[in-house]
Amino acid sequence: MAETAEKTAIPTQLPDAGGHFGVFGGRFVSETLMAALEELEAAWRKYLADDAFVARLDSDLAHFVGRPSPLYLAENLTRKVGGAQIVLKREDLNHTGAHKINNTVGQALLAQAMGKQRVIAETGAGQHGVATATVAARLGMKCVVYMGSEDVRRQSVNVFRMKLLGAEVISVEAGSKTLKDALNEAMRDWVTNVDDTFYVLGTVAGPHPYPAMVRDFNAVVGREARQQVQEEYGRLPNALVACVGGGSNAIGLFHPFIGDDEVAMYGVEAAGHGLSGHEHAASLCAGRIGVLHGSRTYLLDDDAGQIIDTHSVSAGLDYPGVGPEHAWLKDSGRAAYVGIDDEEALAAFHELTRSEGIMPALESAHAVAYGMKLAAGRSKDEIVLVNLSGRGDKDINTVAELEGMTL
Amino acid sequence: MNRIDARFGDLRRRGRCALIPYVTAGYPGPDATVPVMHAAVEAGADLLEVGMPFSDVMADGPVIQEACARALEQGTGLQEVLAMVAEFRRSDAATPVVLMGYANPIERRGVARFCEEAAAAGVDGLLIVDVPADEAAEMRAELARHDLHQIFLVAPTTTDARLKRAAALAGGFLYYVSIKGVTGASTLDTASLAPAVERIRNAAGVPIAVGFGIRTPEHAATAAESADAVVIGSALVERLGKTDSPAAAVDAAREYLAPVREAMDNNASSKRDAVSA
Q1: CATH number at residue A325
Q2: Structural domains of chain B, count
Q3: Number of domain units in chain A
Q4: Which of A23, A135, A271, B44 has minimal CB crowding within 10 Å?
Q5: Across the interface, which of B78, B109, B153 has its CB nearest the CB of A30?
Q6: Which helix (DSSP H) or strand (DSSP E) does residue B8 occupy?
Q7: Does B87 touch chain A (CB under 8 A)?
Q8: Are B155 and B180 in contact (CB under 8 A)?
Q9: Does A19 touch chain B (CB under 8 A)?
Q10: Considering chain B, what percentage of its residues have pLDDT values greater than 70?
Q11: Closest partner residue to A188 among B58, B152, B159, by Cβ?
């Protein structure tokens, strides 16, 4: 880890006024969106400093989402692995089954405060779409969710959940028919309907202020975990582990620990069929710096600069870019990024399900898999804290299909 | 002198509003682009915009998305686009060419290298849709080194502060996006256009082009009353997409653009008093 060279920039004070994390981030969008982003940034800054707004947010997180989510010592898994204690942050127990709701509750309240009556969202695995449709139902807002047609097929249960919640789900046929294309389409909708529409972006990617705003709404995960681990174990963990697609659950966990130099941080990307080929979604492990979806970050493209199709067994990690703050954490050396392939993630899915009675989302199974690897080489006194970002109910069709079953 | 400046100077003297057709390079096929560019000039185009295909054209509507996807499938990348411009330049030394596209392919090729190659090919300006004035500093120096203009967009939602910044950095012309939306998404709101152009004119010293909602000769004529240039993109690209040979694409471009030019010229007399010297 780089410990001295990067001390000058304090990551918790990033981004700068233009939304930059070092060379990353920024606002690489068409002029047609700039006014909307400036309006959003002003509202975010205003309401996050507004006691009444923050009280309402905290109340919703407690009573609607079910926070705080517990820490859970995975004793059976720890025993099997035979190394450091594996502790899970149970975001899977949140209302709607993942960390995504932390952000959508916040953004929906912001939309309401700004007087916007229509919310739109992109979704990959469907968790963010469900979380957006959920808060829209509660606040009586019209909700449109864009989803790549490939993901619509893979995540039919979540599509139906969104429809039950009153959302319109638009299947996107463009490009690779996955998350990146859904994001393009949501941006196009926003540009067209900017007066009455709030774009609830689901990850820490996109143009400023989204990376910082979505981080702030998810940082409750890390704040809680930091307090809980100190209360329950009397100290900070040795390592944090979280899966990274766009990177919202990881940044939510990492951010409150950034100043704790003794806590190592590992972001786990989807290595798909292996990092040596092209069938993965590991932009930090195997990508290059470029511009996608409004920010400068690591991404996966070909030599002509065209964004390439990614692959992961988990729809929520199937994204060719990554949040710019992760790019900054990688280059500064504060966090390390690693890959877990489809097979390892599936094995961890089964392992956690059978040994602890906890069925993780396939996204989170990547973090579990790496957490097990990391714990294996360590002393029993150490703590490896894994963010269990979502539950696996949505993935049972995918798992069944991979095992040759039809449900 | 940059060809864009020379051309707008000449047009001002002649009292003519510029017609700027947009074509996606390599669409409907790689052989069609250069013949269509020449045909557009013959049909009355004064400048040309050439789209550089990209996989994730966030600010573009379905027509240009489809055009980019098909052009990429047929292998039209930046290198091919530059070769097309160079070929066009061999028989047209005067008509300015603006490349329109997105940042990532240019960054991958290298901004400095791309600017050098673009200038050598005969390009006169760049409009990088996802590089607004705020993020333009790096590219600006390289463009200036090669006398390439950086064209910026102005939207109906652009604040006075942002307009001022874009006006200060603008080279060549400012491109007013006449609708809230993506390319080709809806049609021109004629009532709000003249005051919007006037507002930009008060802030900027460069010519003003209007685009993003202009589909018919009537729209073009209306826009020509207040603007210095009219950009036609999706409506032309849509017609080119229905052709199956370069010759048919050339015919389609001529047939579509000639009436547009005529309608703009017929309206020319009413425009001239609106232009300040």
Answers
A1: 3.40.50.1100
A2: 1
A3: 2
A4: A23
A5: B153
A6: helix B3-14
A7: no
A8: yes
A9: no
A10: 96
A11: B58
